[in-house]
Amino acid sequence: MTITISSNNWEDFWQEEQQKLNNTSCLNNHEHILSFSNQLGKGYQQQFFLHSGLSIYIHKLELIDNIVESIHSQKFLPEFAFHLNGKRKLVDGSYHQAGENFFAIGPCLSGTQEWSANTPTLKVDIHIEPNILGSYLCDYHQKIPSELNQLLQGTDEKFYFHSGKTTAQMQLCLHQILNCPYQGIIQRIYLESKALELISIRLQEVLSEHESRCSTSKVIGANDIERIHHAREILRCNFENPPSLPELARKVGLNQRQLKQGFRACFDTTAFGYLHDYRMEQARLLLTETQMGVTQVAYGVGYASLPSFSAAFRKKFGICPRTYATTKEKKVLLE
């Protein structure tokens, strides 16, 4: 069953449980825990308020029903969000799931986001004050995307969103945050250092991608780069039933030759080479994070033939999906 609630009502569930059960506690002066235990599901939110304009939110939640959260326009502080388990559909229609993260800042448009039921959700969000982030990047105006630069300087009100894969280096930092061995002021210093480390790794990706785009724009043009990235997001959002190459090109306002050249320039692969890799990664995550069988996963990522899926998975990862699904070494994080 799917339940639709507003963002305010969603927050009320936490607040009501806090008052009713008195489950908010000051463990340290900078740490708070909110409990979520009601007819929708169970879980908690752990909050750390640190120096340097930093805060960390750890969300652990398991829902009984799918929740559609109705969101009204709101302004995001710079947020670095890391999804470690579960699946969530964002306002723009893309999915945020295990192994993925995003960096967002600015006003978000109204819409809905969906939280999936029956799969434990675990995510870590890092917030930082805009002026603090801006002070770190003040000497790099020419090296960061113009829309991000304008937001940090307060000269524009566009929404900036940058998604990516969570690397092994990021996973290590997240594991250290979730398993911090310290208390008190030492905990605070430790968590600040790990939060800043994650932000620095993530910003390096933003800077590197922007530099690559600038270099690529000399070859295919800045407007075409935006269209190529739009095409990539269309493939990601419709990977189970993707558009044909002519249809994809038409959707983003390019011809097929421009689309092919653009994908090569931006991602060093073809459009459907990218789609294949993305499908395989989604299949791996489904086998890792859910109880779905191999046949369900194959159909779930868009394969009509189980043998074709098995052959593709084995070629990509060097192991057949059925063996991968039963191995005890699938999860490398948070066992």
From TrEMBL:
A matching Pfam family: HTH_18
Gene3D superfamilies listed in its UniProt record: Homeodomain-like
Family matches, as PROSITE patterns: HTH_ARAC_FAMILY_2
MF annotations from Gene Ontology: DNA-binding transcription factor activity; sequence-specific DNA binding
InterPro entries the UniProt entry points to: Homeodomain-like_sf (IPR009057), HTH_AraC (IPR018060), PchR_regulatory_protein (IPR053142), Tscrpt_reg_AraC-type_HTH (IPR020449)
Keyword field: DNA-binding, Transcription, Transcription regulation
Domain HTH araC/xylS-type: 229-327
The protein's name: AraC family transcriptional regulator
Record organism: Halotia branconii CENA392
